Amino acid sequence: MTSAALDRAAAGERRRDQLPAEVTGFVGRKAELARISALLATARLVTVVGPGGVGKTRVAHRAALRAADRYRDGIRLVELSQLRDPALLPNTVAACLGLPEQHGGDQLAAVLDHLRDSNLLLLLDTCEHLVDACAILADAVLGAAPDVTLLATSRQPLDVPGEHTFPVAPLPVPDPDAPVRLEPLADCGDAVELFAQRAAAAVPGFQVTAANRTAVTRLCQRLDGIPLAIELAAVRLRALPLPELSERLENRFNVLTGGRRGTVPRHQTLRTAIEWSHELCTPTEQALWARLSVFAGAFDMATAERVCAGPGVARQDLVQTLIGLIDKSVVLREGPEGTRYRLLDTLREFGAQRLTEAGQETDYRGRHVTHYLGLARQFRDNFLGDQQVNRFRELRREHANLRAALEYALDTPACQETRRDGAELATALYGYWAASGLLQEGRYWLGKVLDRFPQPWPERAGALVVRGYLSGFAGEIRQAVDEVREGITIAEALGAAGIRARGYLYLNIAQTFGGWHAEATAAGAEAERQLAEVGDQAGLLFLDTQMAHLHQLAGRPDLAIARCEQGLDRFGASRERWLHGYLYTVASLAYFQQPGKENRCVDAAIKGLRAKHELGDNLGIAYAFEVLAWVAAGADRFERTAWLTGAADPLWHRTGKRLSGTEIMEEFHQRAVKAASDALGEKRFAALRAQGAAQPLDQVVAAAIGDADELMRGQATAVPRGGASPVGPQAGLTGREQEIAALVASGLSNRDIAAKLVISKRTVDAHVEHIFAKLGISSRVQLTIWLREQLPRARDGASEKLPSHHRRVTSAVGPPTRGRVVVA
After folding, report:
1. How far apart (Å, rounded) are the C-alpha atoms in residues 169 and 191?
2. Are 780 and 705 spatial neighbours (Cβ–Cβ below 8 Å)?
């Protein structure tokens, strides 16, 4: 019998798995445990990686217990957190295996000899501070003991051939503003459930209720869902009530210091857990960690190089240093391709303290502000260009960093030059605030600028006119007019012609929304003169849209449509979306005011909706929903009216007053709502409105564009943001399907088609479904595009077979070369 066999026999009475019994409940991690279990079935070395306090050890222990029956000799746990000398690693493993000390001999050889005939799971817990020694050990075991599987936990991979790494993320935290769901508790999210369990143990009787659920969720969110931080916070409930605990988490390291007896030292406080990670980093990695703390959200490699490279972190070394922080689970990868990175808030706060201690906060936060000011300037100077959508989406991705830059520049005792940068950043983002529907946030930051610049300086003048612009869209008309006029006065005194010209432009739209048509006309004329003098071509394009809206509200729809055409002509073949969307939407409003122009109204509204949806402009989407709802009410399609107005409601709520507080537009809205409510009954109408408000926006847009009467729950297909949706392979349509397809593309509803062909609407519905299925499409707009693509073939002889209304509508699909609104 070999020595290994003898050792096993001697140890026969020992506990099979050697794992400590769990003394607290285990929460969540079902998916992680299943995937680790699957890995252990096929891989010889699995390393569970993640940041400090994320729960790697608990997850590894649970996974090991699940897999215990696969191993004849059970599980052997090697705890390494207290070991500091890597030379003693073989001795520590030997002790866990029950082997005697090898006096004067090779302890690693003895371990390998023991394991050679073993069939067990060797769990190496907490390898990060001994990563090289653990890697050597793991490589040796893999080569010498074919029936031994290694499961390791570490803040960085071992980088051994054959290693499979499994990252453990923080516990998921639900949206604090989501509807309250308390039964079962798991619906509240794993992080909230963990807090509830630990809090109940610390304070008997504690429960997560409808009253405190939002506070608990926000607390877990601020702790990044890190189990260690959540457990420490729950224990603090013994001394602090929940509201006070949440408030004090602004300085989480001072609050979460209550050590737990019986835990390893590195897990007794949040700070020591993070300091453990910090000590494992090289000086260069520590410096970069501190500098990366200036980013409030995710960042890419190029931005990190621009902001963080400097003394101690050379530009040519930054990529490799960042990789080192990723390997140590300090920096996490994000995005579908892992090309963006971020620090957990807890690690970011620790890094920020280190940055301040090093006396480098002013320098690197200033560089952060400068970088994002550059992005804002680029967006402002090219707002109406072909790259508008891409640049806008870039700013949306960087929203947290924009906030951080504004907060530092305007809220901290920064130098005057930095404050000027903050003022320019807030005003340069005027198009971003408007296009994203973040009117209130934009006004908030511009209000900060006004507080910081009470003198009649250019910064104040610029902030006033832009704030007035946003206030107008939000429906705060009197405030908007007052702000813009004050800005114009300061600009005139300073000789700031560009700011003054924009002031009159923004005064025009505020007065238009307010119903002061004569004043708006005068402001528009002055704006046109001054914008031309300073060469502000973008401002003139804005004015086309605004004057078209003024004509429409003043009861001059023909002039409104002509001004929309003028604006689209100025753009040519541009891929700009924001003003295109408004020009089409204003044209649809003008058509709505003309009897018999319903089809043109819908066509223009859908073009506006597509443009706004592609950009992600919630305010513009809400306007388009309203127009389509009003047309639906006029056609007695009241279900469609109900869910369209319902879908618009939350969009208006986020941005300000519905329809910017414009009385004439509000009358249209109320008329449509009353007609639908009277026809459907208040209960049915309210249910449909609620359905529209609750449905994902992409799905509502798809249904709106697809001319649907019913908003189906779980509707699978949505209109993607990024241009026309691709259509699938062609399929043969029957003669009747071709006829119905042409009528659909002409803008007729299913009900209108049924009346025209003298068949039932149910039959038309079925035909349309078959057409969509055969062509692999999901909306009427996609069908129109598909038919337009068939026109070159039709011109060879089949053109005359198409109905005239089909030939008419296909000429107007997509961004027209000359940008015409009219369909005929």
Report:
1. 12
2. yes
Query: Which of 192, 124, 182 has its CA nearest to residue 154?
Result: 124
Q: Locate tokens 């359905």: which residue?
A: 691
Dist CA 658 CA 221 (whole Å)? 32
* Whether the Cβ atoms of residue 482 and residue 514 lie closer than 8 Å to each other: no
Residue 221's pLDDT band (cuts 50, 70, 90): confident
Tokens linked to 298: 């995710």
Which residue's structure tokens are 């069908």? 783
Q: What ranges make up the beta strands (E) of 80-162?
A: 120-125, 148-154
**Lowest pLDDT segment from 1-5, 127-131, 168-172:** 1-5
Q: How far apart are CA 791 and CA 692, in angstroms?
A: 36
What is the Cα–Cα distance from 532 to 628, expressed in whole angstroms?
36
Spatial CA neighbour of 549 closest among 594, 503, 517: 517
Token pair listed for 202: 């610390």
CA distance 744 to 234: 60
pLDDT (tens digit per residue) in 46-62? 999 988 888 888 899 98
pTM: 0.72
**Residue where the block lists tokens 């949806």:** 613
Contacts of 261 (CB under 8 A, 6+ apart): none
Contacts 24+ apart (CB under 8 A), 650-653: 650/693, 651/437, 651/618, 651/619, 651/621, 651/622, 651/625, 652/622
Omega of the bond leading into 184 within 30 degrees of 0 (cis) = yes
Q: Which CA distances in Å does 24 have to 13, 20, 28, 231? A: 27, 12, 13, 11
Distance, in Å, from the CA atom of 132 to the CA atom of 542, rounded to the nearest integer, reads 63
The answer to whether 799 and 780 are in contact (CB under 8 A) is no
Residue type, 744: V
The C-alpha atoms of residue 552 and residue 10 are separated, in whole angstroms, by 94
Residue 47 forms beta bridges with which residues? 152, 165
Report the interhelical angle of 388-397 vs 361-381 (nearest 10°): 150
Closest CA to 316 of 325, 303, 305: 305
Identity of the amino acid at 229: A
314-318, 728-732, 817-821: least confident range: 817-821
**Can you list the pairs that 479-483 forms with residues at least 24 positions away whose Cβ atoms lie under 8 Å?**
480/506, 480/510, 480/513, 481/507, 481/510, 481/511, 481/514
- By the 8 A CB rule, do 375 and 394 touch? yes
- Report the Cα 68 to chain-centroid distance in Å: 41
Alpha carbon distance 678, 658 (integer Å):
22
Residues 388 and 399: their CA atoms lie apart, in Å, by 16
Residue 778: per-residue pLDDT: 58
Q: Choose among 141, 119, 138, 151: nearest CA to 5.
A: 119
Rounded CA-CA distance 655/659 in Å is 10
Place of tokens 């073993």: 118
Strand partners, 439: none
DSSP output for 358-369: TT-HHHHHHHHH
Q: Are 166 and 48 in contact (CB under 8 A)?
A: yes
Residue 379: which of 339, 324, 429 has the closest Cα? Answer: 429
The β-bridge relationship of strands 331-334 and 340-343 is: antiparallel
pLDDT band, very low/low/confident/very high, at 220 (cuts 50, 70, 90): confident
- Are 322 and 284 in contact by the 8 Å Cβ rule? The answer is no
Under the banding of pLDDT at 50, 70 and 90, the label for residue 807 is: very low
DSSP 797: I
SS3 780: helix
Which of these, 178, 172, 234, lies nearest to 207 by C-alpha position? 234
